[in-house]
Write a structure and sequence with these properties.
about 230 residues; 3-stranded parallel beta sheet; two-stranded parallel ribbon
Length: about 230
């Protein structure tokens, strides 16, 4: 509403529980402040909801449905536009037995909300948040596995483009990761060196043992030698 600039002749009715905020409203709105109420806005809203609704003609709901249907018109365009895409999705959902429409945010999401309809529909709501539609679609299918879920989402081209040099260090690991990698490489090098050393030791020929010295033969006593000599004669 551009802080009231969109309707310069409109009056303001401010409801707030804080008198300081009401004083600020009197200053900002000046003569356009037609009513100020010091009360809880929630309580005032509940009280207004209990009032007598304005009379409605019997065909009011039918006229609303007809107005919504006019927004989903088929197009004779052959090019791929927001209107032709939404029209194609609308036809698919209308032919499905249990359709669910999920519209994400963004400008294209507004086209989808205006041109596609289904008995069950989930949109990004008054927050205008963008990016939650995929989660909504997955949850809708999980809640009803038989449903035909139409998910419409806008992808910004700039958000998915990348040019060399934008962030050359983006893929580099952090300092802690570098330290851990260096420590791991050092331990691996030590392990390989120990394995090579053990292998070399196992393959080396065994050292030849020096032959044992023969003990000198003991000489027979002289008496035994003489006896042997007599026998021989």
């Amino acid at each position: 509403l551009q802080f009231g600039a969109a309707a310069p002749k409109a009056g303001w009715a401010v409801v707030h529980a804080d008198p300081v905020e009401l004083s600020r409203a009197r200053i900002n709105c000046a003569e356009r402040l037609t009513r100020s109420v010091e009360a809880d806005p929630n309580d005032v809203a509940r009280g207004l909801s209990l009032g007598t609704p304005p009379p409605r003609t019997g065909d009011w709901a039918d006229r609303v449905r007809a107005a919504c249907a006019r927004r989903s018109m088929t197009s004779d365009e052959t090019a791929l536009t927001s209107n032709t895409l939404c029209s194609a999705v609308h036809v698919v959902l209308q032919e499905a037995d249990t359709p669910v429409l999920v519209c994400d945010g963004g400008e294209f999401g507004q086209w989808a909300q205006a041109n596609v309809s289904a008995p069950r529909r989930i949109i990004n709501g008054v927050s205008g948040a963008i990016g939650g539609g995929l989660c909504y679609a997955m949850a809708a299918r999980a809640a009803d596995p038989t449903a035909t879920v139409g998910f419409i989402h806008q992808i910004e081209a700039d958000a998915w483009s990348w040019e060399a040099g934008n962030n050359p260090k983006k893929a580099e690991p952090g300092q802690k990761a570098k330290e851990l990698a260096a420590e791991k490489a050092e331990k691996e090098a030590e392990r390989k060196a120990a394995a090579e050393e053990a292998k070399a030791a196992a393959e080396a020929p065994a050292a030849e043992e020096a032959p044992a010295e023969e003990a000198p033969a003991e000489e027979a006593p002289a008496a035994e030698a003489a006896a042997e000599e007599e026998k021989s004669e």
